[in-house]
Amino acid sequence: MTQDRPLPQPDALKALLPAATQARVQSLRVGDDGAVTAVLDASGLDALGREVLEAEVKASLSPAPGVSAVRVGLVADRPAPAAGQAPASAGPLIIAVGSGKGGVGKSTLSANLAVALARQGLRVGLVDADIYGPSQPRLLSTEGRRPEAKDSKMFPIPSPFGVGVLSMGHLIDAGKAIAWRGPMAAGALGQLVDAWWGDTQVLVIDLPPGTGDVQLTMVQKHKPAGAVIVSTPQDLALIDATRAMDLFAQAGVPVIGMVENMSGYMCPHCGNVSDPFGCGGVEQAAAEAGLPFLGSVPLDLAIRQASDAGQPPAAGDSPQGAAFARIAARVADWLAHHPAARG
Ligand SMILES: Nc1ncnc2c1ncn2[C@@H]1O[C@H](COP(=O)(O)OP(=O)(O)OP(=O)(O)O)[C@@H](O)[C@H]1O
User: Which of this chain's residues are annotated to bind ATP (predicted)?
Assistant: First the structure.
């Protein structure tokens, strides 16, 4: 890559890392080509914790101007915890993505979050639990595929973006409305989660929109490690988002944070951003609820077109992809501090 910008300063780059991660940095150098080499002390972290740490550093530094690549070296003075404590064998950590109402971009966020986390070095899977309108097969370019099964458990379908995916859309014909209710829906969804996820570390679940019985059963049964709530900035959507917070609280699932989608409209012609639905409402709602704000994604025609074409923006290097990468970096940071990822 030709370096046409001034090289970033190591101290400025270090400041981009979360405080706990900064404390682990032993050295951070920037090469003439903009490639960053960071060496961190990974003492006390097990395999998952080390991978999450590496992913977090890459996610935090890669978007910085002038950075062409990020290499991470991990050294450990103290040994990792005993194998019995390693969480990897306990199955993937589940992150549920929920919204109080439909159409706010929950599926778009789920797909791009999964792809962005995978680009940051984690082994990620995605379950599309949106039985009433499964859209992940299209979003992740796996339409028309059928999962194979062994011992009545399904194998995830590999997407071209490094994320395995299972969706009701892979089991039924496209366009067929699913009129399932209650236990039947819960049973079908359970099979998607209890599939052969192998060494997958993080399983993102795209929940059905709303806060009814299907959602509650799903959350209670599969006990996500954390939840991400998506909302648009409008007041009505925010009221629904509050219901989603209640749902997770009821099930004892911590909320990782809130995302504002369709935040400001990016004009495809002039690039100016206007605010047809308002802007910043979700950040304010998160602050009022004492929850972290994970970031915002603009209402951008390019996002809809790429999504419709099965090319998640998070898989590319566009500004739209960067918005998802920033949100994923915060989620990776949360995972890095999750008890299951620490020694
Ligand atoms: N930031 C965005 N900019 C432009 N279009 C978007 C954005 N986010 C989502 N969309 C589009 O909005 C529509 C609804 O998004 P999506 O399916 O992700 O929402 P959802 O909350 O999962 O909806 P549902 O409740 O129907 O499952 C899709 O056509 C999607 O491409």
Answer: 100-107
Q: Are 26 and 41 in contact (CB under 8 A)?
A: yes
Q: For ligand 1, say whether the CB of 34 is within 6 Å of any of its atoms.
A: no
* Residue 260 CB less than 6 A away from ligand 1: no
**Residue with the larger pLDDT of the pair 275 and 305:** 305
Instruction: Answer whether 268 contacts ligand 1 (Cβ < 6 A).
Output: no
Which CATH entry fits the domain spanning 88-341: 3.40.50.300, 3.90.1300.10, 3.30.460.10, 3.40.30.10?
3.40.50.300
**Closest residue to atom 15 of ligand 1, CA basis:** 105
Take atom 18 of ligand 1 and give the residue whose Cα is closest. 105
Mutate to test the pocket of ligand 1, among 107, 274, 275 (most ligand atoms within 8 A of CB): 107
Q: Other CB atoms closer than 10 Å to residue 265's CB: what's the count?
A: 17
CB of residue 120 inside a 6 A radius of ligand 1? no
Q: What is the pLDDT of residues 306-335, one digit of tens each?
A: 999 999 999 999 989 999 999 999 999 999
Give the per-residue pLDDT at 80. Answer: 54
Answer yes or no: is the C-beta of 99 below 6 A from any ligand 1 atom.
yes
pLDDT digits (tens, 9 = 90+) for 49-67: 788 888 888 888 988 899 9
Question: Which residue minimizes the CA distance to atom 23 of ligand 1?
Answer: 103
The phi and psi torsions of 83 (rounded to 5 degrees) equal -55, -35
Query: CB under 8 Å to 317, separation ≥6 — which residues?
Result: none
CB 201 within 8 A of CB 118: no
Cα–Cα distance for residue pair 310/108, rounded to 1 Å = 11
What is the CATH number that goes with domain 10-83? 3.30.70
The model's confidence at residue 294, banded by pLDDT at 50, 70 and 90, is very high
